[in-house]
Each structure stands twice: as C-alpha cells, then as structure tokens.
C-alpha cells in the first residue's frame, strides 16, 4: 500500500508542478484528498480479496514474525488453531516468520494436496535450502526429473532379495543391544531412546556402507554427528532467515558446519576405501549401486551419492528409532498386549535368518500402520491436523491411540483388511503404511524389518515396564513427532523358555 500511495503522491506533485499549482494551500488539499481516496480504495480492495478467501486466517499475527511467539508447543498450537478457526473449508491460514502456511484440517483437502505431489506441489524452498546447506542433496531434496532418476537407481536395492542381505546386519546389531541391556537392567531403569538411535545408525552404516560403527557398544563420534542431522534440518528450515549464509561464521552457529564436514569426509573415506580394496562382499547398498552403475558412474556424481548416503542416515535413523521407542512405550503400558505379541514372537524360529520369518509377525507388524498415525500432520511444507477420528470398519479409534489388536495389513489394492472382515476402504490420510505417501520412502521396508526384528528380540528377552512417572509421555515435534523426554523402562529378564 505504501508503494501505491508514494506513486500517487509523486504523480499528483508532478501534475501540480507542471501546472504551476505547487506550494499553494489548495494544492496541498488536493494531494491530501487524492491520497486519502486512494488509501480507502486500496483498503476496500484488500477487504474484498480477504472476503473472497473461503478459509479463515489466524488473528493476532505480529509484523514480520507473524504468529511465531504464539507457539510454545507447535503441535498443541496447530491442533488448537485447527479446532478454533476452521470454518468448514478444511483450511486455516497462518503467518510465520514472513511465510504463509496452511493448516489442513480434513481428509478431503489433505488428499487433494497429496494428489498434486511431487509435480504441482513441491517442498518449500527453505526446506530444500536447509538440506543443501547440510550437503544432504539426495532423494529427500530432489524434485522433478532428478527425483525420478535417483529413485530408479536407489529403490531396487531395497527389494526383497536385497533386504535378505541386510538382515544379517540387523541381527548383529540387535544382539549387541540385547547383550548391553542384559548387563544394565539389574541396576535400574534403562534409557532406551539413545540406544535405539545408535542401533539404527549402526544398521544403516552396515547396510549402506558396509562399515561397522558399533556405536551401541562404545561411543562413536561419527554416529553422534550423523544423529544430529535431522534436528539441524528442522532448526534451519524453521529459521526466519538463513543464518548459515552469514560469511565465515554462519555455518558454525549451530555446529552444522562442523558436523557436515565430518559427515562428508566420513562418507568419502568409506567410498575411497571401498574403491581401493579388493573385497568381494556386495551385501551393502553402495557396493550394489557402484557395481550396477559400472562405467556409467557419471549418472550419479559423487556429490549426489554422498548426499543420498547422508540422507539415508538422517531419515532412516530418526524414523526407525522413534517408531520403535514409541512402540516400546505402548507395549509397556499394555501388559496384555505385550504378552499377546510375545506369544507371536516366541512362535518363530530361535534364529531369525529369513525375511519370510519376519513376515509371519502379523500383529507386531501392524504397528507400522498404527504408530505413524499418532498424528497425520506434516511439518513441511504444510501443516496437517489430526482433528478427526478415523473410522475403520466397526471400530472407531482416535488417531493418537495405539491399537495393534486390529490386525491391520495392507492389500495391493490399497485397502486395509480387518481380521474377520472383508476389505475396508480407509481415508488416504487415515491409518497409513509406514513410509507411505505421494513420495513413498524407498527404504521403508528396511526400517520395517528393523523394528519388527528388534521388538521380537526384546519381547523374547524382557518383560518391559514403565519407569515411575512416565505413564503419560507427551509427543512433541522434534525432527518428527517424538517423545518430549527420553524413554526409560524397567527391563526384567524373562525365564528361558525351556525353564518355564
């Protein structure tokens, strides 16, 4: 508006000067009247535009920073705004740090947005800029043709045959984890959150790079560095300005510069070691990819290869660990469900060496649908509210309620099966398979295999109870929806099966 008023003022002034009317009281009155008329016209135009918008805007935003000060807890605040300001349109508009965001409040609108990904609706530029600043230029950052090309190169290496190769890595890491917890459980509650992050990082390292970090057994600097990536990404994406671009010091204000340098150096060193070695093992992703690409390595430049490696660490570790920890919490709260799932775990062979064995875990595996449904809202580039309950056949359950007893599995036709019932159409933004969406995570089956396997081993080995005071854990937004504090559980070793 200021721009238009200034232009009008200059036009009036030029007219008066050209007609030798400048400086007189009458001229000043004409200018004031013209500016007032223009201001009122623009104000009416703005009100008319706002009236034509079919959704509500959250009131009370401040200049430049918008509603940022109103968000002590982003999840609770968004849910509150969705409940308070949705006028039935399914959309609520909010301003944050100079950017316009939308809270999507119903299934129809969420489904419409998902249907436009990844061609007409793309990620916000701040998200891509944050990924690039951390040298994480991979599938998570890619759009358009780059995304299509890299997905074609990466996805086949997570098919059934290749998952069988990665199963041995998961067995090795989880055997170390169980051994560690057995040595700690007599001393009191065990903090499982960080251990699950270490275990997920170790499996990614073995499965992607063929490199054994073993951070479950002993602290590993590079494992700690890689584990910080998801949180750094969130911090940079939500920053009101790109502070990391400040010359010299910007990259180091949040330790992102140091961590990025270490992560890139680690990945490049592993690639160099592999290229110079004569090892014949091909049971990890990079070896499989390089062998397949052969002389056509230029189709996947080193920068993109390293970026995808870092992406797999940051995305795979966080989602796998958080899902497993969340499930442990729910099982510790529900002892009858814990015993039911234990019986399912005990029915398998003692040594699980086949992917087919894991697929027999129907009830345990159902949590790949349930746990991600803790909330359906997506932080970037839009906010999705979990406002309404999701109907599922004869049952209706709040989104934030874990209910593995429904025995959910997904059919190829995109519908879900409820035990004892036929196909049940489910809203696309309701209970969804782990890693699903318009851009399905190519490594989702690796993560699902990890979580099913470790839960099986935990249920066989321990009776899991909550530490006093952790009966009601709160979910907050970190890099994804996770517990506000670390989960501590009481682990009681079970009597060996033969001795019961």
What does this structure look like?
InterPro entries: Cyt_P450, Cyt_P450_CS, Cyt_P450_E_grp-I, Cyt_P450_sf, Cytochrome_P450_monoxygenase. Residues 331-358 form a coiled coil. This is Cytochrome P450. By secondary structure, the chain is of the alpha+beta class. It folds into two domains: 1-52; 129-499, Cytochrome p450 (Orthogonal Bundle), CATH 1.10.630. It contains 17 helices and 14 strands. The strands form five sheets. The chain has a four-stranded mixed sheet with strand order 1-2-3-5. Helix 8 (193-209) crosses helix 9 (221-227) and helix 14 (335-346) crosses helix 17. It is globular and about 100 Å long. Residues 372-397 and 402-432 have low confidence and may be disordered.
Overall shape = globular
Going by helix content, strand content and strand pairing, the class is alpha+beta
What is the terminal-to-terminal distance?
Answer: 80 Å
**What's the CATH topology label of the largest domain?**
Cytochrome p450
The CATH homologous superfamily of the largest domain is termed Cytochrome P450
Tell me the helix content: 40-55%
